């Protein structure tokens, strides 16, 4: 076997070893189930339903967020309990998080959903009407546990005063 054939064989073996599994390119039922799980969370926010939100969050769920504040990015971490607590105090329609262009990757029991988003709320903390509260990027990481997709991590960027394009 010539050196070129050996190199070509090694290259093809290496490429094959790193090719995504069939599940990684799944655009069917698993991807739809991932989107449905995330949408359940977003619907629970819109409906101010903590029980519904809890149903799709893993017990070890956490949120990390970067808020753009006066030109500086500030990092915040939120526990499952901290995310659920305000749902008992807000009214229906107070939180409206809309995904704009969700993309899903699934590989076996792990999935990621990435999307631009726009979060609207009728009132800011001081009671002033504010239709476009913030926007940016959201990512949700999910694991399939006991046949159900559960959100383990949620990360986002948080930019106040959204441009019309988002």
Q: What can be said about this structure in brief?
A:
By secondary structure, the protein is of the alpha+beta class. It is 27% helix and 40% strand. It contains four helices and seven strands, in the order αααββαβββββ.
The average pLDDT value, as a whole number, equals 82
Helix content class = 25-40%
Proportion in β-strands = 35-45%
Multimeric state: single chain
Order of helices and strands: HHHEEHEEEEE
Q: Characteristics of this structure?
A:
166 residues; alpha+beta; seven-stranded mixed β-sheet; 4 helices; 27% helix; globular
Structure, described:
- This protein has 166 residues and is an alpha+beta fold.
- The protein is 27% helix and 40% strand.
- It has four helices and seven strands.
- It has helices at 3-17, 29-47, 50-54, 80-84; strands at 57-69, 72-79, 96-99, 103-107, 110-120, 134-145, 148-160.
- Strands 1, 2, 3, 4, 5, 6 and 7 form a seven-stranded mixed beta sheet that branches.
- A hairpin with a 2-residue loop joins strand 6 (134-145) and strand 7.
- The protein is globular and about 40 Å long.
- Mean pLDDT is 82; it is low at 1-25.
Give the topology:
Blueprint: H1 3-17, H2 29-47, H3 50-54, E1 57-69, E2 72-79, H4 80-84, E3 96-99, E4 103-107, E5 110-120, E6 134-145, E7 148-160
Parallel strand pairs: 1-7
Antiparallel strand pairs: 1-2, 3-5, 4-5, 5-6, 6-7
